[in-house]
Write a structure and sequence with these properties.
By secondary structure, this protein is of the alpha/beta class. It contains 9 helices and 14 strands. A hairpin with a 2-residue loop joins strand 9 and strand 10.
Amino acid sequence: MGQLIKLQDYISRYELDVYHYPSEFIRLKKKQWERVKQAWESSQLSASMQQVDSWKWMEQETSLFSKIKNLWKRSNEEIEEQSNEEKEGEFSFTFTTEPKSIEDLKFLFLEKLFRLQIRWASSTLTEESLVDQKYYYDPYLKYFLQRFPDTYLCMYKPIFLLKKAPVELETILISPTTTWCLTFVEGRKDNIIVGSADRFWTEMINDQERKMLNPLLALNRTEKIVKKIYEHFAIDMPVKKVIINRQGYIEYRYAPSDLEIIDRRNYDMWFSSLRQLTLPLKHVQLKAAQALLHYCDAHYYDRIEWEEVEEEEEADS
């Protein structure tokens, strides 16, 4: 399951410590899956099932406020322990429907983790961003998070702040060996996308034609920015740009040599090669992610629990 380290311009806890959270996510995911699987195999899963709010499963049963009420009076070790408790609690979730098979269990588990991923990519212990509900149903976001290994770090349509101006980029997928800049040009099944160096491309479906904006305009911008940041931080990692049409075809007679075109003729082979990468998280990969996150924009507000804590601290002083 790919890790969502940045979503648009939402605050992400990966921005706080990208060297810690990726491995922590893998550890907690594995631990919780073993718990859930064992409970299901011993027919004890249904006993813990209960109706919960759409996001309450991601939080501990005790309120965050009650746990951090006297946060500033604690030592650094106690603060770290509290943070770990919250992360453990976020992974301790229940199901509202009973899985009938191990495949059902895996599906429900991945759906819960998908929502948790968005939670981690839109909040920290003290801040939170307002998430557009469309991302909970975005098929491309689910594709990156549910179809790739845990060691792939995803920046989904991230907004960078460059020269004080926000710039939305295409999706960036950072594997242990390669940084992929990706975009989809998909429409109806068996369509043909005709590419060129012009501002507009053509989608052909039977005898009908439709104009579409050249996707390489945004993809080239993404690649250029990523490479420039890597050069600035002396990061030695290849950057590749890919255009994808999984159920149709892409015809581009004079395509740039540095562009990988993936359509239904070679998609399975390309996708399998990425999924079969079994390397662990790499230092250069995390360094690359940190460099990119450094230039990302973030809009957020203080979480209500922390506002209450601050008000109480001011009243006591």
